[in-house]
Amino acid sequence: MADRLPDMLLSQLSDFVAERIGFHFPRERWPDLERGIRAAVPEFDFDDMESCVRWLVSSPVTRSQIEVLASHLTVGETYFFRERQSFQILEERVLPELIRKRRGTDKRLRIWSAGCCTGEEPYSIAILLRQSLPDLKDWQITILATDINPHFLNKAAEGIYSDWSFRGVAPGINDRYFTKRDNCRVEILPEIRRMVTFSYLNLAEDAYPSLLNNTNAMDVIFCRNVLMYFAPERAKQVVRKFHHALLDGGWLVVSPSETSQILYSQFATVNFPGVILYKKDGHKRSAVMSYGLEEKTEPSLQPPQEKSIITDVPEPEVAEPEPVPYAQALYYYEQGLYEEAVQMLSVLLAGEPGNSKAMALLARVHANQGNLMEATRWCEKALAADKLSSTYHVLHATILQEQGAMQEAVRALKRALYMDQNLVLAHFALANIARQQGRSQEASKHFENTRILLNAYAQEEILPESEGMTAGRLMEILRATSNRERSAGGKTADANG
User: What's the rounded Cα separation, in Å, for the pair 5 and 31?
Assistant: First the structure.
């Protein structure tokens, strides 16, 4: 194996990693990049590092191969309640405000840990919610935890940790929320583990916000010690998507070392004692606020617009162009400009009151804003206008799932499959619901149906109504889910026994 790679090849590898994973390796960090790729060489079945890199940068690479590369380039340094002041502000200021607003209306809270590593951060959030909500059972709580490293996700799903993960943690946390294992390790309690959903997500490539991967209508997004590894332009794209994924009034939590007036210019910057958080404010794009104090601000620095996501499967025949108002509304939706999308769709429906596609898109817009009642109303209108649309039934099921109405969601998905038994996303959704409810045999059947149907698609073919998800991407999600299920099998048996 060569001692080191030529600079030209390292430069090409650095560009490749930045494009496919988002990580930025400038020249001074090339030794780190080289160490990572050297460790990955055996998993790619190469004997030498140079041949492996030349293949990587010049050949089509699958998602599983990207995951292998990511597993050797990501850093797994984290612990419970890391950067304690951020959690203190969450506990004392952010959560009480959100809970107060929702308690009398819609008891829902949605939090996303983006770049969750081995799970300490999302489990810390779950513990904090357990402490803050005495009536937790009456709330619809979503804690989504995503990462690009499948090894991290497997460890997170296991929920087993050593003393090193608890440095600086307040006494009593271990005794209250963990059970002792062998070798001085502890395991998170099942009721805390069940509060968190772990999922693979590539911040550089995957679509979000999206109903399909549950990244929409968030109240709080944690993304700490992640964006520091991204190239500036890629980081801007990620922050812009986070802005779209948050509800108005939602919060973005980053590491103190990642604060930036320019990078987060579309957010209001809120100064707490010792902590800076970023708040999505529909009336302020670049305000600098303190509680009890507002300051004059700089003009907003808007990042360049990203290309819209193609969401339709290519047709064998030349399709007629969409009417301009619908195409414009779809563009607004993809850019997170929800008010503009609603206005455009309202104009379209005033002229074409039976336009089911406009109604369905309006349902998606409202769902991404957290207005689930309105989303349901417009989805039902779309279904009334086109009773035979299997994809509208899938959309209806997705909205019902967000409302916690699982049985109704199952019925909607079964109606979709009655109309189109080959609808991949319906089988996948039914599998996930069955898995969450502990019906493993039923889940396996639907997962297997999903896998069989995916084999009829090309790897890079976009699935119908999937908001840009390819067949290859969903197949990788299936494999990752299967691996996590196998790793958790012993614990599930113990819990059921």
Answer: 10
Element containing residue 253 per DSSP (H, E): strand 246-253
Cβ pair 198, 153 in contact under 8 A = yes
Q: Element (H or E) spanning 129, and its range?
A: helix 120-132
Q: Is the confidence at residue 50, as pLDDT, over 70?
A: yes
* Listed residue (396, 342, 380) closest to 211, CA to CA: 396
Long-range CB contact pairs, 137-141, < 8 A, 24+: 138/107, 139/107, 139/108, 139/109, 140/107, 140/108, 140/109, 140/403, 140/404, 141/108, 141/109, 141/195
pLDDT tens digits, one per residue of 219-251: 999 999 888 888 888 899 999 999 999 999 999
Q: What is the mean pLDDT of the chain?
A: 84
Greater confidence, 313 or 427? 427
User: What is the rounded distance in angstroms from the CA atom of residue 57 to the CA atom of residue 59?
Assistant: 6
**Residue 115 and residue 202: Cα distance in Å, rounded?**
9
Q: Is the peptide bond before 209 cis (omega within 30 degrees of 0)?
A: yes
Summarize the confidence of residues 181-194 as an average pLDDT: 90
CA 371-408-388 angle, to 5 degrees, is: 90
Return d(Cα 362, Cα 349) in angstroms, integer: 10
Give one DSSP letter per residue of 196-252, joined into a string: EEEEE--TTTS--S-TTTT-SSEEEEE--SSGGGB-HHHHHHHHHHHHHHEEEEEEE
With beta carbons less than 8 A apart as the criterion, state whether 246 and 282 touch. Answer: no
